[in-house]
Amino acid sequence: MLNFSLFLQRSRWLVFFFLGKKIRGFAFYDCCFVLFYFGHFLCTRCWGKMENSENSDPVKTLRVLELFSGIGGMRMALERTGRAFEIVSAIDVNPIANSVYTHNFGEKAARNGNILSLTAKTISKLAIDTVLMSPPCQPFTRNGKFNDIHDRRSDPFLHICELLHEIPTVEFILMENVKGFEGSQACALYKARLKEAGFEYQEYVLSPHQFGIPNTRHRYYCLAKRKGKGFKRKADGIIVTHPSNDGGTVPLLTIGDIVDPSENGEKYLLKEAALRKHLPIMDVCTPESNNSMCFTKAYTHYAEGTGSVFTPHSKEEFDKVYHSASIAADEPEKLALLRSLLVRYFTPQEVAKLMSFPKNFNFPETVTDKQRYRVLGNSINVHVVSYLLEELQ
Question: Which is the catalytic residue, given 31, 32, 46, 137?
Fold first, then answer.
């Protein structure tokens, strides 16, 4: 740092020296100029050293607590940011999700645990500074009857809310939930507890299709920081704007960029009953489609509102054949035409790709397709969350 006492001491002797007599023809104003430039030289050198010292400080390694960790979507989003981090603990009550997590990140990467058993003392011992969490969304959905805080599945999240003011080491929290959570009692309680604990927050409702990803999956996000830290993107209400409004451009992908062209087996083809009864109400994607429906954990189990299906034919060709099937005179002809459309479900790996999971993500062989769809339906879009985690930088 700049030693002002030394600077003043040296400056004082220069003044006395030049005021006492002229040196080699120097006038008094010449002496003042010499004094000024000497002070400027000292300040510039010392200030430059200070700046270099600050810039050379290593970026802090984040110590992260991942709650409701699922299959590791939050962790993958954090990896995508390039920030140095350590997952101190990843906790989920679902053993299938934990098996997928450990399969991708190591044997002891996640543990089966009841979040209700966590105490402020236990968390404080972990010396964490970041919390990432995606609490169960069922209490805030139609299928969960919107029971909100009265649903027992909300209890672990409400428990964490009550601990916030007792964990002073935490500097950043990202919480994700289903769209609609923002109007719940649980959300109001969470924001109140954040304020009481010394946090400020910014809310978002975003979907992957805003990022050029061909999938609609609106989700609520709440980012919280200690007061005074500030946000890169700040608004009075919930941010719902397209990310390209930040000044960038959003590259557009199509479903053809997502699907595996070699997937042509019968395993994922719609059965005869589904073709006859459910195809009219299904959202059918073609290779040129630039969007798809939100995939839920009930995908393939229920036909309507759980996710899209895919045909390798163009939209024009699909419409033409489908129209012919609808006016076919007999059932065998109609069924043959519908089968020729090769309509199938998206594979679990393709759903993972739509959710921006990295190429190296995969499932243990012991996990069935039904289980894979279920844990994917409960996960997050990695790209969207990584965008929000830019607030860590």
Answer: 137
Cβ distance 48 to 354 under 8 Å? no
State yes or no: is 137 an active-site residue. Answer: yes
- Contact of 129 with 172, CB cutoff 8 Å: yes
Nearest CA among 204, 242, 197, 196 for reference residue 223: 204
Q: Using alpha carbons only, give the angle 177, 181, 182 rounded to the nearest 5 degrees.
A: 115
pLDDT digits (tens, 9 = 90+) for 194-246: 999 999 999 999 999 999 999 999 999 999 999 999 999 999 999 998 766 65
Q: SS3 sequence, the chain?
A: CCCHHHHHHHHHHHHHHHHHCCCCCCCHHHHHHHHHHHHHHHHHHHHHHHHHHHHCCCCCCEEEEEECCCCCHHHHHHHHHCCCEEEEEEEECCHHHHHHHHHHHCCCCCEECCHHHCCHHHHHHCCCCEEEECCCCHHHCCCCCCCHHHCHHHHHHHHHHHHHHHCCCCCEEEEEEECCHHHCHHHHHHHHHHHHCCEEEEEEEECHHHHCCCCCCCEEEEEEEECCCCCCCCCCCCECCCHHHHCCCCCCCCHHHHCCCCCCCCCCECCHHHHHHCHHHCCEECCCCCCCCCCCCCECCECCCCCCEECCCCHHHHHHHHHHHHCCCCHHHHHHHHHHCCCEECCHHHHHHHCCCCCCCCCCCCCCHHHHHHHHHCCCCHHHHHHHHHHHC
- Say which residues have a Cβ less than 8 Å from residue 309's Cβ, sequence separation at least 6: 270, 282, 283, 284, 285, 343, 344, 345, 346
pLDDT of residue 241: 87
pLDDT in tens, 2-58: 444 444 444 443 433 333 444 344 444 444 443 444 444 444 444 444 444 444 446
228 burial level (CB within 10 Å; 0-12, 13-18, 19+): exposed
Is 210 within 8 Å of 169 (Cβ atoms)?
no
Q: Tokens at residue 116, please?
A: 């209700």
Digit-coded pLDDT (tens) for 100-141: 999 999 988 888 899 999 999 999 999 999 999 999 999 998
**Is the CA virtual torsion 263, 268, 272, 276 positive or negative?**
negative
